[in-house]
Amino acid sequence: MYKVLVADAISDTGLKALYDHPNYVVDKNPGLAPDALKEIIKEYDALIVRSQTQVTADILEHASNLRVIARAGVGVDNIDVNAATKKGIIVINAPGANTISAAELTMAMMLSLARNIPHAHASTSAGKWERNNFKGVELYEKTLGVIGMGKIGSEVAKRAKSFGMNILGYDPYLTEDRAGEMGITKASLDEIAAEADFITIHTPLIKETRGLVNDDYLAKTKKGVRIINCARGGIIDEAALVRALNSGQVAGAALDVYETEPSTNTELLSHPNVVVTPHLGASTVEAQEKVAHEVSEEIIEIFETQTIRSAVNMPHVSGETHKKLQPYIDLGDQMGALAIQLLKEAPDKVEITYYGQLSKENTELITRTIVKSILAQHLGDAVNLINAQHLLKDQGVTSNVSKNPKSKGFASYIELTLYRGEAKANIGATLLNGYGARIVKMNDYRVDVRPEPFLLYIKHHDIPGMVGRVGSMLGDYDVNIGTMQVGRSVIGGEAVMVLTLDKAVEPEVINALTAIKGLEYAQFLELTDEKIPVHN
Ligand SMILES: NC(=O)c1ccc[n+]([C@@H]2O[C@H](COP(=O)([O-])OP(=O)(O)OC[C@H]3O[C@@H](n4cnc5c(N)ncnc54)[C@H](O)[C@@H]3O)[C@@H](O)[C@H]2O)c1
Ligand SMILES: O=C(O)[C@H](O)COP(=O)(O)O
């Protein structure tokens, strides 16, 4: 008998498969305080949550029997996935099951903003009859900028078109062809700022999108623009938004998500030109049934048939083959993250080659991990190990995975190349017996670098004094160097330097480095903690 704890408000209809199955006991206990959850978690084999329950490392310390954490929804920002992975707990989610509900809320928010519905309702229900106070605007023939043309952004664009809106879409993966098929125009962020009457945001909250809509961006928007965010708090800088609302640069904003939730930003929440809801994007009967149904079915599959459909992580597993491949799976994770940072944009082609002994193994899971790591840069939690290759195809990216039994100088070696038009980024890596993971090739230069959290990649002319100048510049900014590697193609030609650092560097350090004579290019690369497992 498996015990399942449902710790947030989850649809009973969606949980039916679990209730009906003789092997499962389901306990519903929404809204547990962290200490209470810590107390009882050891009794459970599976935990189902939405976004409220914080599944911290501290709670997981007590989860001695837990095998699965299911997020009945998309975002796993409330779950310490790294801690779960270390404890061998599978984390699953249900991306896509609440897409329509989130798209429909976005339309409701846009219409509410255009026609002042919440404020007119409050006034009328208070006994007033203020027909002159609530003159709105039509959506018809207005321009809507959609930032993030993934699942929800595309559904919003489709619906907005039926209102006669002109749609501008921005997404690193949006091609002219796909935009043409959807009857929208591919645009840049600046073009959206300059032309849109309404802007709606549908990206994940990732490093690149945090504070995307800030003072600078708002200053570029059309005066009187209306902005909707039903994606994630933090993509809009709330302080900047309040300033723009007060100055009239932004005529109105409709928000479902906030920098911190529950939000206490009263200046924003009570602003007369703002419409707010408490993170209701997925709160419909249908979405809640779908997410609960998807995770219930999957929990049963995991326990009954050991099949995983939607895993966010891949816990370090026992079993000889997995044990042997696990270090390569972790290496693949690091390679994907480094290559996509080097490319700096979404790829249109991915090439992976396994050389030497590894070419004789089943490398499927390594490939999935590499692809997940590449896509996660732009898709965040929406990509998991199971849907990674499917999403890659969906985004119109071609891929080529090949195997070559030749050794390439190492017993096993993986090479990953990403392309975007003429641009290319490439990482070659291996495991050195007794020494762990090594990046041995970067953008076609031979190097020998241990993957560490903070790396600096520099392209420069092979002239005397470069190493010293870079070292002393980093010293000026109090950045300590762990290791330094130089690689060059020919003496006196182009060269690369790869450094491991003790901390992250700010853009001003990169600017200072690029001012060094003979230094062509400097880029800071980061690997998050979960990508650096202990056996490295
Ligand atoms: N309010 C809610 O209750 C609710 C419900 C569901 C989803 N969401 C959120 O909505 C957002 C979109 O979800 P989705 O299912 O459509 O995800 P998705 O992965 O299908 O689409 C996200 C898109 O954003 C694009 N993107 C990444 N970085 C970008 C950038 N810098 N500029 C422009 N586009 C960028 C990606 O390429 C991708 O196509 C996510 O943040 C998700 O967590 C909120
Ligand atoms: O990530 C999600 O799926 C949405 O933000 C919905 O979150 P919720 O399940 O807490 O409503």
From TrEMBL:
What UniProt keywords apply to this chain's record, in alphabetical order?
Amino-acid biosynthesis, NAD, Oxidoreductase, Serine biosynthesis
Q: Pfam families, from UniProt?
A: 2-Hacid_dh, 2-Hacid_dh_C, ACT, PGDH_inter
Positions of the ACT domain: 455-530
- What CDD domains does UniProt report for this protein, alphabetically? ACT_3PGDH-xct (cd04902), PGDH_4 (cd12173)
Give the top-rank taxon of the lineage listed in the UniProt record for this protein.
Bacteria
Q: What is its EC number?
A: 1.1.1.95
Name the Gene Ontology molecular function terms of this record. Answer: phosphoglycerate dehydrogenase activity
What is the catalytic activity of this protein? (2R)-3-phosphoglycerate + NAD(+) = 3-phosphooxypyruvate + NADH + H(+); (R)-2-hydroxyglutarate + NAD(+) = 2-oxoglutarate + NADH + H(+)
Per its UniProt record, what InterPro entries does this chain match?
Answer: ACT-like_dom_sf (IPR045865), ACT_dom (IPR002912), ASB_dom_sf (IPR029009), D-isomer_2_OHA_DH_cat_dom (IPR006139), D-isomer_DH_CS (IPR029753), D-isomer_DH_CS1 (IPR029752), D-isomer_DH_NAD-bd (IPR006140), NAD(P)-bd_dom_sf (IPR036291)
* Pathway as given in its UniProt record: Amino-acid biosynthesis; L-serine biosynthesis; L-serine from 3-phospho-D-glycerate: step 1/3
Q: What does this protein do?
A: Catalyzes the reversible oxidation of 3-phospho-D-glycerate to 3-phosphonooxypyruvate, the first step of the phosphorylated L-serine biosynthesis pathway. Also catalyzes the reversible oxidation of 2-hydroxyglutarate to 2-oxoglutarate.
Q: Which PANTHER family match?
A: FORMATE DEHYDROGENASE 1, HYDROXYPYRUVATE REDUCTASE
> What family classification does the UniProt entry report for this protein?
Belongs to the D-isomer specific 2-hydroxyacid dehydrogenase family.
Q: What is this protein called?
A: D-3-phosphoglycerate dehydrogenase
Q: Which organism is it from?
A: Lederbergia graminis
Task: Give the source lineage, highest ranks first.
Answer: Bacteria, Bacillati, Bacillota, Bacilli, Bacillales
